[in-house]
């Protein structure tokens, strides 16, 4: 059996409320910071992560996105936040894991990051991808393609 990651989307208005800011060291942080567990999903490298809360042994709720060195190897782009419904994203794994996984080891993910200083939007992944978009934390949207694979994450940076 191959290792598999599956996302479950639950549309609801009960999302994490707060704001995303860029710190002096160019990290992206959600405030107020929620309680999280040690397991995170890194779409393609260690510098960007989707934090989680554990629901059961191999089921996690995505809380918010964090990043460090967010402008390192970052491309400029004209970005807009995708239209999205609010909701929760659950991650199901069928394998044992450590404190984090690189999603790109299990599914294709465009290893790129973008920033639009005019609109104050940061994004990772394929910014041309379309599909189901879900706002899982205030100003943070994940995009999934028709096969249910994560394709991009957008973050609206607050002042």
Please give a structural write-up.
With about 160 residues, this protein is mainly beta. The protein has no helices and 14 strands. Strands 1, 4, 5, 6, 7, 8, 9, 10, 11, 12, 13 and 14 form a twelve-stranded mixed sheet that branches. The protein has a two-stranded antiparallel sheet with strand order 2-3. It is globular. The termini are far apart. About 30% of the residues are buried. The mean pLDDT is about 90.
Q: With helices defined by DSSP (H or I, 4 residues minimum), what is the helix count?
A: 0
Radius of gyration over alpha carbons? 14 Å
DSSP, total strands: 14
Question: What is the helix/strand order?
Answer: EEEEEEEEEEEEEE
Structure described in brief:
This protein is mainly β and 159 residues long. Helices cover 0% and strands 48% of the residues. A hairpin with a 5-residue loop joins strand 2 (19-22) and strand 3 (28-31).
Topology:
Blueprint: E1 5-11, E2 19-22, E3 28-31, E4 40-42, E5 48-56, E6 59-67, E7 75-76, E8 85-93, E9 100-102, E10 113-116, E11 121-125, E12 132-137, E13 140-144, E14 150-156
Parallel strand pairs: 4-9, 7-10, 8-12
Antiparallel strand pairs: 1-8, 2-3, 4-5, 5-6, 6-8, 10-11, 11-14, 12-13, 13-14
């Amino acid at each position: 059996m191959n290792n598999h990651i599956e996302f479950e989307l639950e549309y609801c208005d009960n999302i994490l409320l707060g704001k995303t800011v860029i710190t002096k060291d160019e990290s992206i942080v959600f405030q107020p910071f929620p309680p999280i567990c040690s397991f995170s999903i890194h779409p393609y490298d260690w510098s960007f992560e989707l934090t989680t809360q554990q629901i059961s042994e191999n089921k996690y709720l995505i809380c918010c996105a964090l990043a460090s060195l967010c402008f390192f190897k970052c491309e400029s782009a004209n970005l807009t936040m995708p239209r999205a419904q609010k909701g929760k994203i659950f991650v199901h794994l069928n394998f044992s894991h450590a404190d984090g996984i690189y999603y790109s080891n299990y599914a294709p993910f465009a290893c790129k990051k973008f920033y639009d200083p005019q609109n104050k939007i940061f994004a990772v992944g394929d910014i041309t991808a379309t599909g189901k978009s879900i706002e899982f934390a205030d100003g943070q949207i994940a995009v999934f393609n028709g096969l249910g694979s994560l394709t991009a994450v957008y973050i609206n940076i607050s002042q």
